[in-house]
Each structure stands twice: as structure tokens, then as C-alpha cells.
Design a protein that fits this description.
With 405 residues, the protein is of the alpha+beta class. The protein folds into two domains: 270 residues, L-amino peptidase D-ALA esterase/amidase (4-Layer Sandwich); 123 residues, ArgJ beta chain, C-terminal domain (Ubiquitin-like (UB roll), Roll), CATH 3.10.20.340. Helices cover 32% and strands 27% of the residues. The chain has a seven-stranded mixed sheet with strand order 10-17-12-16-13-14-15, with helices on both faces. A six-stranded mixed sheet has the order 1-7-8-9-11-4, covered by helices on one side. It has a four-stranded mixed sheet with strand order 2-3-5-6. About 2% of the residues have low confidence.
Length: 405
């Protein structure tokens, strides 16, 4: 596998995109994106498990069942969530408008929306934005699309890789957005991936849904699962490899790369948490089962008290152990070891469920770094899991206190 620097989704065979300003944001910044694929692409998607689902989620949950998915349209600035029947009708209008402009079927359009909840979509702005975005798609529009997805994000989340399957070079690329209201129970805030690999819809679905549980579902910024979480991938088959229709070596290789790119995009989202000053990685090892490992890691990374301690560079291991304790995982609290690690420096701060004498100043120096790892050894089995998140700063409260104003 090769990481392709300075490449984006439109460097994938057959992919065109655009990112334009449709006036949906008060700032006038780009706020509408289109991702379009040539050929007859298959798709897979995972959606939020929040019972309160936005209109575009409900629409796209039906459209993803279609044999072909030709395009993804994305607007920022308005989530079209908690908007009732009017919101649902507007989501349908958005899909139909895009379909008409692109010359495809309505069911071949996936709709993603992000932004403020509870406000009706301004259709006098969104319809012209859709028409403009569809007219602007090109093989140079990938970076603009990545920008148009953003809300409170401070940087674009994008990654492109290439790898070989069956003697053919495959390209896989993704763009994502997410900064606050991040505690996925499906995929991520918004993530769109494209690839030119030839694969059946059934095998794509199997690979994609399986890898989500170890990538997007293992991040947390603030413990809030959004109404609009969507992760989607389309594969157009234009690379010319022999079509993957079973769990063979080609499938396993593709899935391995897919896990990598989704994990890296998930980490970028965690790193860009609203007001974040550092990326936190929590690795739980030697758990009795995978479920327990994941529960422990996710519990620590979502703990507000632990996140505050990281912001203050406070090596308060008790908060970490407490978070493991209420995770509902299977473990023996009298076996747990906890260590901090960053930039080659490691310090153990707890052993067998109790504190140990450690150099507090060294621990604080480790916590001063922009990326910090927490290692939790349960000493109870052979399973492990990793979760990612960020600290909780003053700016998080400020940003979210001012969000609708």
C-alpha cells in the first residue's frame, strides 16, 4: 500500500466532484459538495443508531439498497434534523434535483447533511446550490468537496492510498468531517469514500460494515451520538481487476486497506475535536474478550473527567480506573496496570489496580505532548482494542455555548 500525498477523491478513476458556496453558511464559505462516479458503482453505508434520525439519514437508508449509487451530495450549515414531514419532503427534493441535474435516478443519490438541528432547510438556497454544484463537477474538485463538508472543523480530513489487487492498481480515497457531537455508534459524523476496485455489493457491504466497528465506532470527542452520522463508500469497478465476489485473498487485502484508511480518517476527526489541544489514544490489552476491550477503551476516551485531566496535564490515574470500572466490561480490578506513553517516553502510574510511586513531573511532561497514549493492561485474556479521542478544553464550552448564535 502507498499513501498518495497531495491526492484526493478525484484522483480515483471515474470520480468527479465539486465544492461550492450556496449561501447556506452565514460566513459565505463553501457549503455544498457533490461526489459523482462514472460507471455503475455499488455502495455500502452505515448510519447513526440515534433513534432521532435526520431526514437525509432516513432517505439514504432506503437509497443505499439500490443496486447502483451514482452520487453523494453533501450540505453543511443545516442538518435537516428534527424537521418533521417538511424536512423529509425537502430531502426528497434535494435528491430529485441532483438526479435531474446529473441525469441519473433519484434512488442513485445519497444525501448527507450536517449543521444546526431543528431548522428547516432554506430551499430557495439549496436548490440553486445543488444545480450549481452538479454543473461544476470535475476531476479537479476533490479538495473543494472536502472543504465544503466542514462545519466547526479546523482542517480537512482526507486520505488517498493505492494498492495492488490481481495485478491491477487500485485507488481508495476518503474525505470526512467531524469536530463536535462525536460519539459514533455506526460510522462517523460524515465520511465519504470512493474506490475504483471491482467488487460485488454484497462483498463491499461485508468489508465496510465490519471495519467500521474498529475505526469510527472507536472515537469519541464529547459522548454525543449525532442525528446525522453517515459513512458511505462507492466502488465503480473501473480499475479492471477481476471482480471480488467471495472472501478470498483479494477481499482480505482490500479489507485491510479499508480498515487503515477509515482508522486514519477517524483519528483525524478525534484530533480535531472542538477546542482540542491533544489527541488521546487508549489501548486496552489482554482483555478476556474483544467486547470488553472495546468497552474499556471507549469508556475511558469518553470520560469528561479524564478528558479534563488531560487538558490540565494532570496524571490522575484514578479517573481512568473509574472509567474502566463503569464500562460494564468483564475484568478483575485487582489486575489492572496503567501507563502513559508519548514520543518514546513511558511511565507506569498504576499496578494491580493501585497507584505506584512515579515521577509526577515526568508524567506531566508526557501529558504536555500533542499526542498521548494511555496503555491499560487488564492481564485477563488475549484480546485488545484501541480508541481515540481528545482532551476537553475551555474552548469546547465556548464553541458549543455559541453554536446557534
Amino acid at each position: 500500500m502507498k499513501i498518495l500525498k497531495n491526492k484526493t477523491i478525484t484522483d480515483v478513476n471515474g470520480i468527479k466532484a465539486s465544492g461550492i458556496s450556496g449561501g447556506l453558511k452565514k460566513s459565505g464559505k463553501k457549503d455544498f459538495a457533490v461526489i459523482y462516479s462514472e460507471g455503475n458503482p455499488v455502495s455500502s453505508a452505515v448510519f447513526t443508531n440515534n433513534k432521532v434520525k435526520a431526514a437525509p439519514i432516513l432517505l439514504s437508508m432506503e437509497h443505499i439498497k439500490n443496486p447502483i449509487t451514482k452520487a453523494i451530495i453533501v450540505n453543511s450549515g443545516n442538518a435537516n434534523a428534527c424537521t418533521g414531514q417538511i424536512g423529509m419532503e425537502n430531502a426528497h427534493i434535494m435528491a430529485q434535483t441532483a438526479a435531474d441535474e446529473l441525469g441519473v435516478k433519484k434512488e442513485e443519490i445519497i444525501v448527507q447533511s450536517t449543521g444546526i438541528i431543528g431548522v428547516q432547510m432554506d430551499m430557495e438556497k439549496i436548490i440553486p446550490a445543488i444545480k450549481k454544484g452538479c454543473s461544476k463537477i470535475s476531476t479537479d474538485g476533490g479538495n473543494d468537496a472536502a472543504t465544503a463538508m466542514l462545519t466547526t472543523d479546523t482542517f480537512e480530513k482526507k486520505l488517498t492510498v493505492s494498492f495492488e489487487v490481481g495485478g491491477k492498481e487500485i485507488t481508495l480515497a476518503g474525505i470526512a468531517k467531524g469536530s463536535g457531537m462525536i460519539h459514533p455508534d455506526m460510522g462517523t459524523m460524515l465520511s465519504s469514500l470512493v474506490t475504483d476496485i471491482s467488487i460485488s455489493k454484497e462483498m463491499l457491504d461485508l468489508a465496510f460494515k465490519d471495519c467500521v466497528s474498529s475505526s469510527y465506532n472507536m472515537i469519541s470527542v464529547d459522548g454525543d451520538t449525532s442525528t446525522n452520522d453517515t459513512a458511505v463508500i462507492i466502488a465503480n469497478g473501473l480499475a479492471g481487476n477481476s471482480k471480488i465476489e467471495s472472501v478470498d485473498d483479494d477481499f482480505k487485502k482490500f479489507k485491510e486497506v479499508l480498515i487503515y484508511i477509515n482508522t486514519e480518517l477517524a483519528k483525524l476527526i478525534a484530533k480535531d475535536g472542538e477546542g482540542a489541544t491533544k489527541l488521546i489514544e487508549v489501548e486496552v490489552t489482554n482483555a478476556v474478550n474483544l467486547e470488553s476491550a472495546r468497552k474499556c477503551a471507549k469508556s475511558v476516551i469518553r470520560s469528561s473527567l479524564t478528558k479534563c485531566a488531560f487538558f490540565g496535564e494532570d496524571p490522575n490515574w484514578g479517573r481512568i480506573l473509574c472509567a474502566v470500572g463503569y464500562s460494564n466490561a468483564e475484568f478483575d480490578p485487582n489486575k489492572i496496570d496503567i501507563s502513559f506513553f508519548s514520543e518514546g517516553e513511558r511511565i507506569q502510574i498504576a499496578k494491580d489496580g493501585m497507584g505506584v510511586d512515579f515521577d509526577v513531573e515526568k508524567a506531566k511532561e508526557i501529558l504536555l505532548n500533542k499526542e498521548v497514549k494511555v496503555e491499560i493492561d487488564l492481564k485477563d485474556g488475549e484480546h485488545s482494542a484501541i480508541a481515540w479521542g481528545c482532551d476537553l478544553s475551555y474552548d469546547y464550552v465556548r464553541i458549543n455555548g455559541e453554536y446557534t448564535t
